[in-house]
Amino acid sequence: MPSVYCSPFHQMENPALFSLLQHTTTRSEKRPKSGSGGGIFRMFKLLPMLTSGCKMVALLGRPRKPQLADHATTVTLFGYRRGRVSLAIQEDPHRLPVFVIELPMSSSVFQKETASDIVRLSLESETRSHKKKVLEEFVWGVYCNGRKYGYSIRRKHLTDDEVHVMQSLRGVSMGAGVLPGLSEKEAAVDGELTYMRARFERVAGSKDCEAFHMINPDGAQNGQELSIFFVRLR
């Protein structure tokens, strides 16, 4: 296998991927070091958090206009506290995701990974066909902060839980919190259904490499950085 990795902790020979990582390095050098921990979820304390009750009823009860005037990509990370975390990418929060995958890591493990100031989630595809776009590949090796967690398969069709999350958050541009589950039984077994949603800048290094860099909310000082890389090995 060629020595191409999605993590800056490994040697790389892929110029496109290296340029994407340079992009994150430049962003990190410009950002003052955070004085306290808490992970990427800490910056969203300035934003409303959705929970069951009046706020959720108000959200689902009437159509909401998009809160963003730009064309930033919407990324949502969600999952039950005792389950696995899923990743969804939407070009518009009112449309179905263009990419959904359940990552091979539990929500608790992912939250520990996001406690650092810089989080890099990397997905690698070993498919050698170039007829598809990068995000159209199905089988992905998943790395987080340089550690490999296993393989996952991109969803071809959304599960009931995933549809529930997308519908519940259709009027939300960014934020973090807890959503009501589909049933009380699931909540009792798997815990609360948590989510984090944010805008991401999309950067295309080549036809085989794309990256998404989180745009910090307005008012978040010294916020953490989250970058997601998609690389098709050649």
From TrEMBL:
It comes from Deinandra increscens subsp. villosa. GO terms for biological process: hydrotropism. This is Protein MIZU-KUSSEI 1. The lineage of its organism: Eukaryota, Viridiplantae, Streptophyta, Embryophyta, Tracheophyta. It comes from the Eukaryota. InterPro entries: MIZ1-like_pln.
